[in-house]
């Protein structure tokens, strides 16, 4: 096998995965749902005529109406509008932290698996230390120490899921570094960095992307947890977790204040899980039809 030949199977496998993903109806539904959620959050100013920060105390805790599609919160702000803008924050934090964790974690995992020896032991022991603490506790500690803002929340969530990517990337790297095309690259004098980036990373990308879609949902849940306990993005910026917390005191007389943003979190997490399950079925040969 030549080095040029390694790209053709990769393209073929990618096309095969796309075909298999399209056959999975639930995965297609999840992808459609997630796409609509993203588009709704992007075009929020054009979808809702209200401002997410405008308060009208006279209209507080109103149920659904022609003017307020999902009612209003404790300050008379339009719940539907705030959900759309809150989705922006949740998606930006969740997807950004997952992408950073994927890049950094996979890089560390590939380096550990490829180099082996003390490098492998050092990297993986650090990852094991991070995994030893519950992810939510780790996120709480980082945000509490550094302060609650967008950057620190992204950093906290990135640190909590980074070790998972490192462990996933390390195992296949150990097997791939003994393959013929990697040996050929070494014989041609290619550097270790090029071998890891060009010949190993693309071959583990499929499995990593599947897990990234699942852990993106987890990252969004973590952001909602942090916001719910007051360690999210500072008010008055709308976030789904903050909206759920604000309506908690009125859960008996106006439950819709918390239910609607909670349902929005559910839809985002469900859509990402459906996409991840479809990609997993497409990649795993034991689950193919």
The whole-angstrom Rg is 22 Å
Which class of secondary structure composition applies to the elements?
A: mainly alpha
What is the CATH-assigned architecture? Orthogonal Bundle
Q: Return the CATH class.
A: Mainly Alpha
Total helices: the number is 11
Number of strand segments: 0
User: Main β-sheet, in a few words?
Assistant: none
Which residues sit in consecutive blocks of at least 5 with pLDDT less than 50? 1-6
CATH superfamily: MetI-like
- First-last Cα distance: 29 Å
Number of domains: 1
Q: How much strand?
A: under 5%
> Fraction of residues in helices?
over 70%
Q: Could you please say which CATH topology applies here?
A: MetI-like fold
Order of helices and strands: HHHHHHHHHHH
How would you characterize this protein structure?
Helix 4 runs parallel beside helix 11 (256-283). This protein has helices at 7-23, 25-42, 44-47, 79-115, 117-132, 135-146, 150-176, 180-187, 192-228, 240-246, 256-283. The chain has 11 helices and no strands. Residues 1-6 have low confidence and may be disordered. It has one domain: Orthogonal Bundle (MetI-like fold). The protein has 289 residues and is an all-alpha fold. The longest helix has 37 residues, at 79-115.
Short description:
The chain has 289 residues and is mainly α.
Q: How would you describe this structure in keywords?
A:
single chain; 289 residues; mainly alpha; MetI-like fold; disordered N terminus
């Amino acid at each position: 096998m030549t080095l040029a030949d390694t790209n053709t199977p990769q393209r073929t496998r990618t096309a095969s995965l796309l075909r298999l993903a399209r056959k999975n109806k639930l995965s297609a539904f999840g992808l459609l749902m997630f796409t609509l959620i993203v588009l709704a959050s992007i075009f929020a100013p054009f979808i809702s005529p209200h401002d997410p920060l405008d308060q009208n105390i006279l209209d507080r805790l109103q149920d659904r109406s022609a003017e307020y599609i999902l009612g209003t919160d404790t300050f008379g702000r339009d719940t539907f509008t705030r959900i759309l803008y809150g989705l922006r924050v949740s998606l930006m934090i969740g997807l950004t932290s997952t992408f950073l964790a994927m890049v950094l974690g996979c890089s560390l995992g590939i380096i550990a698996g490829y180099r082996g020896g003390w490098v492998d032991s050092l990297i993986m022991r650090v990852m094991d230390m991070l995994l030893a603490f519950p992810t939510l506790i780790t996120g709480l500690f980082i945000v509490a120490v550094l302060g609650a803002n967008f950057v620190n929340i992204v950093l906290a969530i990135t640190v909590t899921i980074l070790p998972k990517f490192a462990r996933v990337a390390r195992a296949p790297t150990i097997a791939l570094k003994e393959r013929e095309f990697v040996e050929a690259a070494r014989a041609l004098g290619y550097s270790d960095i090029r071998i890891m980036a060009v010949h190993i990373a693309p071959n583990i990308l499929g499995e990593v992307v599947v897990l990234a879609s699942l852990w993106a949902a987890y990252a969004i849940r973590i952001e909602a947890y942090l916001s719910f306990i007051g360690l999210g993005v500072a008010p008055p910026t709308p976030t789904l977790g903050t909206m759920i917390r604000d309506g908690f005191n009125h859960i008996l007389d106006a439950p819709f204040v918390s239910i609607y943003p909670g349902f929005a979190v559910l839809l985002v997490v469900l859509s990402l899980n459906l996409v991840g399950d479809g990609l997993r079925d497409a990649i795993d040969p034991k689950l193919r039809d």
